[in-house]
Amino acid sequence: MWQARILLCLIWIYGVYRAIVFIAKDAHTIRLHSIQTYGPTVHEFDPYFNLRATEYLYEHGWKKFATWFDYMSWYPLGRPVGTTIYPGLQVTAVALKNYILGDRMSLYDICVYIPVWFGVFASFCVGLLAYECALPVLNSNEAPFRSILEDLPGVSLTYIYKKGLVPVMTFPIVVLEKVFATDFGLRQVNPSASKFYDISSPAVESGLFASYIMAIVPAHLMRSPGGAFDNEAIAMAAMTLTFYFWTRSLRGGIDAPGLYAGIWGAIAGLAYFYVSCISVMIVEDEWRYTLTSFLYFISS
After folding, report:
1. Three-state SS for 199?
2. What is the DSSP code (8-state) at residue 254?
3. E strand segments, the chain
4. Based on CB atoms within 10 Å of each CB, which residue in 15, 65, 95, 290 is the most buried?
5. 233 in Cβ contact with 118 (< 8 Å)
6. Distance between alpha carbon 268 and the CA centroid of its chain, in Å?
7. 39-53, 85-99, 172-186: least confident range
8. pLDDT score at 263
9. C-alpha 199: how far from chain center
10. Of 188 and 197, which is predicted with more confidence?
């Protein structure tokens, strides 16, 4: 009997793994279409300026970049780049070039492929957010998350969900607990009781489904194909990552250990700081910009 349980457990884990690989491959392949068709080329208008600004930052450094007045943009008036740009995109590309990819990839190619990489990453961030929001309620005192499937209209849909879907989703987790003595984080434990709460939502499946929807939804695809080197290419990943860390910090409500909630909250603050770098313009006073970013961090 235990051999069958192990086999079922491994089949379920392998199915989840194959789903993750399939989603990543699909999200990556779709966004590579323009590159495979026309070659690694930056396209559209704003991405060209973003590329030029990235090259300027890479060659001259942050201090000159923050005070750069570009006479070739907004001709004949010129453009004060330091007060009219969102610098997170350029900083990300230069950081990838300097600290991760180095000489293995040119700065131009990095700018071309950033939308593809971050598009895939954003898809999984949405999946993590859906997973976190679909986890079962920890206790009856405070329930920060409930499954949206529990609120479906109609008695028949609710009955099918509770009597049909929940038992099917519960079985693999019970097997995991009995075979490996752990549920690998797929089900939360109630700190005030000695037993596990029954799962009330298919969290893993919800996460996978949300990831795949985000990977192929046209609204996201049109802002993250290869060569579309614009702010939205990384902003979606940064925002969804912030939302995930924030919801993760709330797991457990009032019964959650304060240390772990604080750690996840601090990580959410760092992610929100990255969002502020993408969405906050540089101001003329460098100290004022530093203070603004610091306040974004503290407020989160």
Report:
1. coil
2. G
3. 69-70, 79-80
4. 65
5. yes
6. 12
7. 172-186
8. 83
9. 25
10. 188
